[in-house]
Amino acid sequence: MRGVMTYLSGVRKGTSPVIRYNLICNKDHSFDSWFASAAAYESLSQAGHLSCTICGSGEIRKALMAPKVKSAPVEPHPLEKLRKHVEGTATYVGGSFAKQARAQHDGTAPDRPIYGEATRAEVRDLLRDDIPVLPLPFRPKSQTN
Ligand SMILES: [Zn+2]
């Protein structure tokens, strides 16, 4: 039944239950069609009376009735976001990280967010003295080795 299109007209508001389906053909043409009821859609569909309004294909399926969602902007990788956040808010202190962190903890240096490199032993000492240190899952970009 190629060429058969589905139309609706003359439906008075409130007199007939009408539903709109978004349909997709096998060539991914998307179009809306109106039906008196879900059953009407089913019977038309099963009888092969539906066809694409664009190419006439008889292979029609109902698109998911999902609410239209604005496509989200491409999010950077969480790690990349974290790195940007750290690099944008903290000061890179390189290899003097442990010393700086301790100085800030002791109050001999102004409190500020810092990041840098520390050895495992240094970090262990910091943690033992209740100096909060968080491992970062990346290396600073400025580090070249
Ligand atoms: Zn089509």
Give an overview of the whole structure.
β1 and β2 form a beta hairpin. The protein folds into two domains: 1-67, no CATH class; 78-128, no CATH class. It has 145 residues and is α+β, with helices and mostly antiparallel strands. The protein has helices spanning 38-46, 78-89, 97-106, 120-128, and strands at residues 19-25, 30-35, 60-62, 91-94, 114-116. The chain has a three-stranded antiparallel beta sheet with strand order 2-1-3. A two-stranded parallel ribbon has the order 4-5. Residues 1-6 have low confidence and may be disordered. Bound molecules: zinc ion. Zinc ion binds next to loops.
How would you concisely characterize the structure shown here?
The protein is α+β, with helices and mostly antiparallel strands and 145 residues long. The chain folds into 2 domains: 1-67, no CATH class; 78-128, no CATH class. It has 4 helices and 5 strands.
H/E series, N to C? EEHEHEHEH
Class by helix and strand content?
alpha+beta
Count of helical regions = 4
For the record, give the distance between the C-alpha atoms at the N and C termini, rounded to a whole number: 69 Å
By oligomeric state, this entry counts as single chain
Percentage of helical residues? 25-40%
Q: Write out the distinct hetero groups bound to the structure.
A: zinc ion
Lateral arrangement of strands in the main beta sheet:
2-1-3
- Average residue-wise pLDDT: 78
- Give the overall form: rod-shaped
